[in-house]
Specification:
Residues 22-215 form the HDOD domain. This protein is mostly helical. Helix content is 65%, strand content 0%.
Length: 280
């Protein structure tokens, strides 16, 4: 039996028998989620929680000063940043900013794979949010929010993370990094849902994790998963190119994006660059 087949068998067994070690949310993300659920929480309370993690605090100030928030006057303190972002968005944005802490490994080859997963997630988030921003300009009552989509995009393939991390425990079987990446993609959907359930994320997160690989529009829609699919299309990520093109044409007809080469549209490109800059 080849090393690749051995690794595949090990991963499939652990997934089927719930023996795969799932990642946990960073402590600061858990604190933010818990505190934001309190009915009497204030903006100052949230600032106090976020201040416990200096790196997160710095990122929240960066977010508040970005075009993502649609403001031009700069803020310099965490309290100002939290006030600008607001209670309705602070939970999703804070958790999104903290997620990078999950993508860590002591093994060099595995860390390279986790870096790729994280950067891919940022790419998807940046593209999806840019497309949603365009759509919301003419569909103000879409009910779809940038902060929710950002978080959905960052975790849409989160199940790939423990699969890659599990390979760290089978170092003699690691082999070709491309095979490890293939395994992570092919086995991740159900694992993603298990993680999102454990993290307390809602049904819309679960459905995106399960269905974003399907080359078909969301029903009813449009919904968050459609914008994840647009991000995949932007990277020419679907194997069936004919179906990919048909789906893209459907999205253009619905005016989710203005044209088939939508990443060349100046408004979409501007928001895309801004969201990427938040995570740099």
């Amino acid at each position: 039996m080849s090393a690749q087949q051995q690794l595949l068998d090990i991963l499939q067994y652990k997934i089927q028998h719930d023996k795969l070690v799932l990642p946990t949310l960073p402590d600061i993300a858990l604190k933010v989620r818990q505190r934001s659920g309190d009915s009497d929480v204030s903006l100052l309370d949230m600032a106090d929680v976020i201040a416990q993690d200096p790196a997160l605090a710095a990122r929240m100030i960066k977010v508040s000063n970005s075009a993502f928030m649609g403001r031009s006057i700069k803020v310099s303190t965490l309290n100002q940043a939290v006030t600008r972002i607001g209670l309705s968005q602070i939970r999703n944005i804070a958790i999104a900013m903290a997620l990078e802490q999950v993508f860590l490994s002591k093994h060099k080859q595995v860390q390279q794979q986790l870096d790729t997963l994280w950067h891919n997630s940022i790419q998807v988030a940046s593209t999806a949010v840019a497309c949603l921003s365009h759509y919301n300009r003419h569909e103000a009552r879409s009910g779809l929010n940038k902060d929710v989509l950002t978080l959905i995009a960052l975790v849409h393939n989160i199940g790939a993370l423990p699969i890659v991390a599990e390979a760290e425990r089978e170092q003699e079987l690691l082999g070709d990094p491309r095979f490890l990446q293939h395994l992570a993609q092919s086995l991740s959907a159900d694992v993603s849902v298990r993680i999102l359930q454990a993290w307390g994320f809602g049904e819309e997160f679960h459905q995106t994790a399960l269905t974003w690989r399907k080359i078909q529009p969301q029903r009813p829609g449009p919904g968050y998963t459609d914008f994840i699919r647009l991000a995949v299309i932007a990277r020419d990520g679907y194997a069936d190119k004919a179906l990919q093109k048909k789906l893209l044409q459907h999205y253009v007809t619905l005016q989710l994006v203005p044209q088939e080469d939508f990443m060349q549209h100046p408004d979409i490109q501007a928001v895309y660059q801004d969201v990427r800059a938040i995570f740099s």
